[in-house]
Amino acid sequence: MSRLLFNCTSVSLTLALPMMVFLKHNAYPLASHEVVVIFLAIAIIGAALGAVGSLVGPMRRLPCRGIAMMLGVMFLVTLILPSGQPVVSEGELDGLNQDLPFVLHIVLDAQIGIGGIPLELERAPYVKREMRGFYQENEFQLYGGAYSRFYNTTYSMRNLLNYGLKSATSEFSDGSVLLRGNDWFDRLHEQGYRISVIQPDYLRYVEHPDAGDRAVTYRLGGAIQPLSRTAVSTKDKALLIVGSCLKASRYLRPLLVDRVIPLTHLGSMEMMAEVAGQVANANRGQAIFAHILLPHGPYAFSEYCALDADIGNWLPSKSRDAAPWRNTSESRATRYRAYLKQVLCVQERLNDIFQVLRDRGMWEDSIIIIHGDHGSRINMVPALPGTADLMTDQDYFDAFSALFAVKRPGIPGGYFDAQLPIDHLFQRMFLEGVALDDAELENNPFVFIMGEGSMLGSTMPKRRR
What we know:
465 residues, alpha/beta, three-stranded mixed β-sheet, 13 helices, 14 strands
């Protein structure tokens, strides 16, 4: 009987220990209902496996008492150790030059441009009008035909912030990337700015902030802590936590791709709240740079930013049932409907931030830059060299159309039809300070399609008016 008890305990603790490490790493509330459910399930499974192992197999010959005691100590030590830090804040802003205007630069991941919205969908014309009206009412120069030359975030942001692909990146074992070299940040520093960076861990713009700067890094890959603050059911929370834990394994991850719902949207909404909080305390001479994974999927928020409590409705940008394509026409339409709601939600949050600047008397002389990094990526044909010839015009718009909107003191807002890449617009506006038009580039729009170790230059279709 004692061997049976220690066998069951050993197996249960073997299963429970990685879960406890994962929960502590994410600073997840251990007293929550979903955590209790998870450990009860582990205890039942461990007891069943331990009972079988007591009758057959190598467990009959193992020193189960010693193993159980060792695992128990490890479990208790993990329990009392300090929790991880899903959000890391480093540095303090100081030495602000208040003769400089405040700068707010927000990258909205997967934010499609107005010219790329597929108008055949029922609510698309309404969303297009709402987007155009929102930016024009807030005095932005809005470029409806803007597009990214790259489908990949890392290449797109390297190209834009460095006025060309001349920056190296460092990749870490967890797949995250550090952008080494940043001409835009260097230019801000030269002008006398202090920079506050709000960044996701998967693409970091600074490793450690320079003196007088600040960086807040959100761990979004595999992070589960924001889930505890939602109205999702206990059962679904438990399933999401277990799935995220299993996906954290380098061995299981390939088997779970597209089968575990990432929770990046939850952390990203909290990043947006961080931006609002910093703006509420910002001063002239400060530049806030934030990369937010919204309206990037999963698409789970209503147009008024209410989270759908049914995780079955949280949709990614592609359907695995459509493989080897990214979507069928039906799955694409379903995803776009959810995506466009999230686009409107993002505008709600931006409007809150803009109102803070107005209330503080900082709106008129602030510089605000808002742009996407690529399209919605709710395309049907993959944007890869091997399938580029099969891509339709709308596939290109879905893949590469990107928002680009800028508000600058003393410069009237307006809407511009020019079909120009976001890196070109950014460079002309903030580096060269010259006219933004470029007839040759507009008449010959092109993008880079990358994959399979190759890069293909391809013509971007002419945008629809």
